[in-house]
Each structure stands twice: as C-alpha cells, then as structure tokens.
Amino acid sequence: MIRLGLRYKLLLGYCLVIAIMLAMVWTSFRALEDMSRAYSFATEEQDQSLFFTAKEVDHLVWVTQLSEYLLGAEEFHGQLDPTKCRLGEWYYQLLESEQFADLDPELQELFLALDEPHRRLHESAQQVVSLVERGYSEVAVGHFFGQTKVHLMDVREILDQIVAISTARAQAWHQEAERTVADTARNLWTFAVLAVVLALLVALFLSSRITRPINRVAKVLREISTRGGDLTQKLPVESRDEVGELSQAFNNFMANMHEMILRVRRASENMVNSIGEIAAGNLDLSQRTQEQASALEEVAATLKQVTAAIEQMAANSNEGDNLSDETVAAVRLGDNAVKEVSEAMDEIAGSSRQISSIISEVNEIAFRTNLLALNAAVEAARAGEHGKGFAVVAAEVRNLAGRTAESAKTISELITSSALRVDRGAKAVEHSKEILDGIVLNSQRLGDLMGEIAAMLREQSSSAQQIQRAVDQLNEVTQQNAAMVEEIAAASDSMRSESSELLELVKEFRLLDDLQEGAYGSHS
C-alpha cells in the first residue's frame, strides 16, 4: 500500500484544485481560440460577401454606362475584355491560385459556372459597341436587351448564390462562436462548482485528519497535567501519514514517560532505603575519622623526630664529604710527588745508559790501544837493540790499556748494578703511582658517594618536610572531613524527607504496575 504523508495529501488536494483552475484556464483559452477563429472565418465570409456584392455593383455600373452609351453618350469607358475588368482580374487570378483548390466543391462549381456568363456578358457588350459604332443603334439596343441583360442576370444570379453561401457561412460561424461562448460559460461554472466542492472536501478531510488527533493529544495532555495523571493512555494510530506518526510518537513518548516515572519511583524507593544506610555509614565514618585524626597526630609527631634525625645525618654527611675532598687533595699531592720521583728516576736511567755507552767506547779504545801496543812490541822485537826502549813504552802502554779496561769493566758493572736498582726503583715508583691513582679514584668515588648520600639526605629531609606538611594538611582535611560527615548526616536526613516527598509525588501518576496490583487485589 502506498504511504502518503500529510504533506503530499495537502499537495494532492491543492494540485487537484490547481488542476481544475488550469482546466478552467485551458477551457477559456480554447474557447477564446475557437471564438477568435469563428469570428475570423465569419469576418472573412462577410468580407467575401461584400466583395462579391461590390463586384456585382461594378457590373451594374458597367451596364449602366453601356446603356448610356446606347442612349447617345459620346464614348463607352467600360472594360470590354473579361480578363481586365475588376471582377475578371480577381476571378482569373483566383482560378490559377492554390486558394481555389482549398475552396468547397460548391463554391468551386459556382466559380467555374461564372466564367461562361461573364465572358458572354463582355462579348455581348463588344457586339453592342461594334453595332453602335457601325450605326446599327436599334440592332444594338435589341442585342443589349436580348443578350447583355440576360448574361448580366446570369452573372448576378451566380454572384448572389456565392454571396448567399458566404452570408450563410458567416452566420454559421457567428452561431458557432455564440455556442462556444455558451459552452465555455457552462464549463467554467461547472469547473468553478467542482473547485469549490473539492476545496471544501479537502478542507474537511484535512481538518478531520489533523484537528481530531491533535484534540486527542491535547485531551490526554490535559489529563496528565492534573494530579493523578494516567500514563497508561494511548492514541489510536489511524493513518500512516504525519498525523499517524504524531500519534505513534506520542504513544512512544507516553511509554518512555511511563518507563521513566516507573524507574524514578523505584529509584526513589531505593534511595529512601539507601539514605538510611548512608546515615548509619556516616555515623561509623565519623567515628573512624576521629580515630584517623588521632593517628595522624601521632604520625606527625613521629615524622618530626625522623625529620630531625635526617637533618643531623645530612649535616654529618656534608662534613664527611668535606673530609673526603681534603683526602682527595692530599692524595693528589702525593701522586704529583711520585710523578716527580718517577720522572727523576727516568732521567737517572737515561744518564746511566749514556755512561754505559761512554764506557763501551772506552773499552773499545783500550782494546785498540792494547792491539797497537802489541803491534809496537812486535815491531820493537824486530828492531832488536834499537827497539828496546820502544818495547818498554809499548809494555807500559799495554799495562795502562789493561788497567783502563779493568776500570771500565768495573765502572760498567757498577753502572749496570745502579741501572738495575734504578729500574727496580722506577717500577716501585710506578707501582706506588698506580696505587696512589687507585686511592685518588677511590677517594673521588668516596667523595661522589658522600655527595650523593648528602644529596639523598637533603632530598629525604625535603621529602620528610613535605610529608610533614602533607600529614598536617591531611590532618586538617581529616578535621574538615569530620565536619563534612556531620553535614552529610544532616543532608542525609533532609534527603530522606525529600525522597519520601518525591516518592509520594511519583505515586500520583497512574502506571501499569498500579493496574496490575489492582487486578491482583480484586482477584484475591
């Protein structure tokens, strides 16, 4: 089934009225067109009738001129050529035009029949003029009355028939226009009556479709607004348009309101019970709050002692940090002295190495001197007596070279022994230096640890102070909570009375549970 909303129903009613109005307008325009066409055709027929009447008059004037010529006029001015007279020019052009093919067969037949009498009329006039010019006036008069007048009557008879047809058609078109006016007036009145009736029906329909449900809603709302409102009422949904949606939405609203009031009632009942429990809990909470306040006072006193101890430890830690710094400074001085001794030992070792090098050179010189002395002794032995003195000198030189070599050896041994002792001393100094470096590092680490301990103790002292302040604040808050608990207890009593009053107000509404309880009571 097609669902039409109220909007579309209104539009449909208005469209029907507008359609009738458009039909009236269309009928009026169509009637105007028909009347205009009828009057136009009537005017054309009248003009054509007048035209042929004028052409008939022209030929009467033409015949009158011809008769005057017979009576003695000096000259005949009429047109003797049937194709050049006023009627002939128009007539023969009509026969050759497309308009002639569009004429009715009756008119075509009359126009074709007009050709012969019209042509003979002009031919008889030519004969009359010719007879008069030749002096046969009496014969011309006889021919005029015997031929010309007869052909003129034939032409006039045909023209009269054409004029009669045109006049009859003009009258027919006039009658057609009058009938169109009458039909149009009748149709317009019919459409007007239909439009009024349809508008009234649409108004009544929409009024019944809109006002009746709204009145129902207003009635239900008035009943609900009074004390003891019935929330079980529902509106009948009689349509599927906006009014039906309004009724359905109102029913949904009533259902939601019913559910909400029911929940409020149950919540009020639960709240009355809960408030009693809250009051008992508040009393217990008040006692615990007092106990908590006493405990917090003891904690505050203990924290003051802890804070004082932490501050003393922080002071001792700062003093230990200062002593550690002095120890590190002294160890660094010893480390510097050991470094200087190590450098001096390195210089002694370098000098010993230089002396060893010099002694090596002395040994080499003594060795070469000994070789030279030996060579000199050999040469002195070869020289015999002459070389004895030189041999003595060579022996002495060898003796000196030997003593020099022994002394150099002794010095070398002493220097080697000194170098070994210097190396052992350098190693001992280096070991002492490493130990002092370790002591410096440990002292620095000890100083850092003492600094960290001092910082931690300062932080602990600050934290203890913050805890002290927090405990003081907590103690203050606890005192405030105790006061608030008393206020809550008073508020709970007030809420209990207000909840009872709210429950009584909610019970004023009539709910399905009330109906079910009433039904159970009646059955029991």
Write up what this structure looks like.
The protein is mainly α and 524 residues long. The protein contains 8 helices and no strands. α6 runs antiparallel to α7. The chain folds into 2 domains: 213 residues; 214 residues, Methyl-accepting chemotaxis protein (Helix Hairpins). The longest helix is centred in the middle third of the chain and has 142 residues. It is 90% helix and 0% strand.
Question: What is the secondary structure topology, with strand pairs?
Answer:
Blueprint: H1 6-70, H2 86-96, H3 98-102, H4 105-134, H5 137-225, H6 242-383, H7 388-506, H8 512-523
Number of helices: 8
Structural category is mainly alpha
Along the chain, the helix and strand elements come as HHHHHHHH
- CATH superfamily placement of the largest domain: Methyl-accepting chemotaxis protein
Q: What is the CATH first-level class name of the largest domain?
A: Mainly Alpha
The poorly predicted ranges are none
The CATH architecture of the largest domain is Orthogonal Bundle
Mean pLDDT comes to 74
User: What is the CATH third-level topology name of the largest domain?
Assistant: Helix Hairpins
Shape field: elongated
How many structural domains are formed by the residues? 2
Distance between the termini: 48 Å
Radius of gyration (CA) equals: 77 Å
Question: How would you sum up the major sheet?
Answer: none
Helix content bin:
over 70%
| Beta-strand residue percentage | under 5%
